[in-house]
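User: For this week's homework, look closely at the record that follows, marking any run of repeated tokens, and judge whether sequence predicts the tokens.
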Amino acid sequence: MAKKETAPAQEKSENLLEFSSKFLQGTKDELQKVVWPSRQQLISESVAVMSMVSLFAFLIFAVDKLFIWTASQVF
């Protein structure tokens, strides 16, 4: 009777171990397919992203100040 009770628990842990092993192998396989950017490409794209974020932050700031000025003139 004791063997029947422990068998599902042991089987469950083996399934978990098998699943974990397959998952890690799949992750490793997918990471080997990734095309990593060169250092120059990484720097140029980072600069482009930071420039666009700065531009949009300034535009939002300017529009906010315009709305504040307009509201102060109206009220």
In short: The mean pLDDT is 89. The CA atoms of residues 58 and 64 lie 10 Å apart. The radius of gyration is 29 Å.
